[in-house]
Amino acid sequence: MKTNTGLSAVPCLRLKPGREFPLLAGHPWVFGGGVASAPAGCRAGDIVEVLSAGGDFLGMGTFHPANTIRLRMLSREREKIDADFFSRRFERLLVEKRRWLPPDTDGFRLVHADADYLPGLVVDVYGKTAVFQIHTAGMETCRAEIAQALRDPAGPVRAACVVERSDAEARRQDGLKPRPAEIHFGNVTGPAPFREDGLPLYADVIEGQKTGFFLDQRDARLYVRGLAAGRRALNLFSYSCAFALAALAGGAEEVLNVDSSEAALGLGRSILLENGYGQALEAGRVRFEAADVFEYLEAKTAELRGFLRGPAGDAPGLLVCDPPAFAKSAAHLEQAKKAYGGLARLCFGLLAPGALFVTSSCSGALSPEEFTAILRIAAGRAGRRVRILKTLSQPFDHTTLLAFPEGPYLKTCVMEVVD
Ligand code: SAH
Rounded to a whole number, what is the largest CA-CA distance in the chain? Predict the structure, then answer.
């Protein structure tokens, strides 16, 4: 290990004894309690060198004097953080992520923030379009370098269009205001086309939610595709109907999409048309309902039960329920548990023996065990015996580091009602 020689320009942060081990295993954070001495005069977002108690160089990170996460790791090397740094990192991540992407897929998460050692930065790629989000003060000063590295015709990504969607409320935790969508390079003439598992899709990169699409459900969508043959599917919280497309591609007979956003359903309609389901739409085999899911389930219980039972002789229905994060932070956890439980109870109540139920929680504050417990209690209240067919998490491009248990957030449970 190298010993710090003290680069004069970069201040040093020294850890308490023993606090280097999580970092050596790849954990990307140091909390306030792990810091022996913080550099004097350092402001939010400043880049610092990280030293062990014994003075060994551990890497570089971004510092925040007021955040409980005092330091976020950027590198294990001593390097200059400029456009070239971002280019090198994007190149490496591109190779690593393309290695495991399924065939005929060019929509993926190139950078998953802290877990990819680019803290506070998300980059999603949709075909030729790159969309980035900045969440932290440390990344906020690197905006121009990030955009440059993404568009550079001699760089690794060579995006034809670079859009920034730093409009998340989470920015406030680092003292930053949400910003309106910004096009840094190229022209946006409509939703960005890309492919997932051989199917054409679109992301609304300017007005859509997150960066325009929910790439994190790719594995679950592929699994649903394998289950859907001959079934009617109810797709709750459908957004742009990506689960509906997966179900139809897998041979679903009918799909009913429900979401409160008219715009999302409009985009979903275009996606299904592009995929050749125009006739199914006209015949009413693919439908869209702009409604609040909770109210809709209460109001239409009998109708939905009938829909999911299917015509006599057909396979029982498939219910996909993928709500937004009810717990945006640990503070909302108890309230969120009630919401997940109430929703699951309503869903189980619609399902007859043989029906399939796919449901998710993207609240990072809720553990997989807690989510399963919520489902167990809801099934009990609805009087259903249920078999778990599969549990899924976020796909590999939403990196899960062995050393970073705080990272994973998505939980999906695929179940079959036994009786
Ligand atoms: N399943 C989608 C992603 C869902 S994101 C996919 O695979 O792409 C959550 C969706 O829930 C958003 O589209 C949002 O518009 C919708 N939503 C949030 N609260 C809602 C509510 N109470 N009723 C209906 N839809 C809601």
Answer: 77
Burial (CB count within 10 angstroms: exposed 0-12, middle 13-18, buried 19+), residue 258: buried
CA atoms of 130 and 161, how far apart (whole Å): 6
The per-residue pLDDT for range 175-213, each reduced to its tens digit, is 999 999 999 999 999 999 999 999 999 999 999 999 999
Contact 137, 119 (CB under 8 A): no
Residue 82 — φ and ψ, nearest 5°?
-135, -170
3-class SS string, 54-97? CCEEEEEEEECCCCCEEEEEEECCCCCCCHHHHHHHHHHHHHHH
- Alpha carbon of 241 to ligand 1 centroid (Å): 10
- Chain-centre distance for alpha carbon 102: 17
Are both 52 and 173 inside the same structural domain? Answer: no
pTM for this model (two decimals):
0.95
Residue 205 is assigned to a structural domain of this protein: no
- Whether residues 15 and 163 share a domain: the answer is no
Ligand 1 centroid to residue 93 C-alpha, Å: 30
Q: Measured from the CB, is residue 196 less than 6 Å from ligand 1? A: no
Kindly state if the Cβ of 298 falls inside 6 Å of ligand 1: no
- DSSP string of 230-263? T-EEEEES-TTTHHHHHHHHTT-SEEEEEES-HH
In-domain check, residue 204? no
Domain that holds residue 142: 83-193
Kindly tell me if the per-residue pLDDT of 258 is higher than 60.
yes
Asked if residue 343 and residue 238 are part of one domain, the reply reads: yes
For residue 296, report the distance from its CA to the centre of ligand 1, in Å: 13
CB 247 less than 6 A from any atom of ligand 1: no
Tokens describing residue 412: 């999906």
Does 174 lie in the same domain as 219? no
**What's the CA gap between 23 and 93, in Å, rounded?**
20
- For the chain, how big is the Rg over CA atoms in Å? 23
Same domain, 328 and 398: yes
As a whole number of angstroms, the distance between CA 301 and CA 305 comes to 6
> Is any atom of ligand 1 closer than 6 Å to the C-beta of 288?
no
Euclidean distance between the first and final Cα of the chain, in Å?
A: 60
